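#struct-help
A.M.: can someone run this one for me? Single chain, 463 residues.
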Amino acid sequence: MELFYYMVFGFLSLVVAALEFSKTSKDRISTTSAFNSFKNNYLVVYSLMMAGDWLQGPYVYFLYSQYGFDKGDIGRLFIAGFGSSMLFGTIVGSLADKQGRKRACITYCITYILSCITKHSPQYKVLMVGRILGGIATSLLFSAFESWLVAEHFKRGFDPQWLSLTFSKAIFLGNGLIAIVSGLFANLIADTLGFGPVAPFDAAACFLAIGMAIILSSWTENYGDPSENKDLLTQFKGAAVAIASDEKIALLGAIQSLFEGSMYTFVFLWTPALSPNEEEIPHGFIFATFMLSSMLGSSIASRLMARASLKVESYMQIVFLISAATFLLPILSTFLVAPSKVKGGSISYGGSIQLFGFCIFESCVGIFWPSIMKMRSQFIPEEARSTIMNFFRIPLNIFVCIVLYNVNAFPITVMFGMCAIFLFMASVLQRRLMVVADIHRQKPQDNWASLKERDAEAEPLNM
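D.P.: on it. Structure tokens below:
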């Protein structure tokens, strides 16, 4: 492997380590033992859930190809997963508000375990069922756990500002360290130990089962709106009314869809962008580098959210603009760097520049996750939290399905340009959200939700 990759990975490792170990007593929050126990329990469960998800990623496409399916067949399987998340996932995820968030988290574990089991079959129909189950599980992963955490945090009377501490640590571990270790572990059991491409899915099922056991034994149930006179359609109508009547919620949903849509598109584009002439690149090592960049971003986010004078709505405008700029690099490099016409070989000079930009984008992703979680905890009403969060994923899944279906129809520079425009739009909407939120804070606070939002911004978080 080229020295270049080691240098990038080593530099990022040093920066992350410096940020984490440079924290002084002023940077650490004084919490209670009860909160620390609660936080650590959630972080263990969340890490196991994310391990179950990350272990599958590197070998999904490869497993399907080993079963003899072509690119078109595999593409339809992926579209089915996102379509399932949009349709069935929205319904199942929304039931969490009424039936209980703990039950929804358990449902995630069971559904994803069943999805993993289907990977043992080479039958296309069975694999399709697995993708549908996986789509449902994905919606639950990104709504039920956060909804349970926020509700349980306030139910136990913890300081609202401490939520940011749990969010940043969850992203640092679940979307950073766990992702890196999961990728290496999947490679170990599938290739080094020779258990084959199904082994990571079996390991994922084991981690999910362990996490489910912890949930069953230590978590209490909480609800959004448990009233029995509300059916699912009424919940959907209530969530739609909340989004339509509150500009802050609508803006937040649009911002999330624009950023996450660009992020998922990037997942499909970074490989051809770095190897346009079939250059030999270490995909696993680059993936680990991206996850390390995400860890860097979450570490930066924890420090940004520690400043009482710096609002999330303010600095996220800059984060979105930086993200947009990184996606312009593949376009600019085609004009500034002469493209190589030699097939194979190592990564080109233009590819090296793009890799640097992609690492910056992944750092922005690391800042985005805990920041969007904090904004959701402030602006989304508790009684319909899971339902609204799954509504946010509908335009995201539609967008990703369209991109997957047309991924070969447009040049890669056009796709990156489109994502850059979306990220710039997210920055503009984030500016609007900041203005609306400031106006809302200046109005008389006369309800519990408003008081909670005001209190969450009242003091700094020092970590």
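A.M.: thanks! Confidence is low (pLDDT under 50) at residues 446-463.
D.P.: also worth noting: The radius of gyration is 22 Å.
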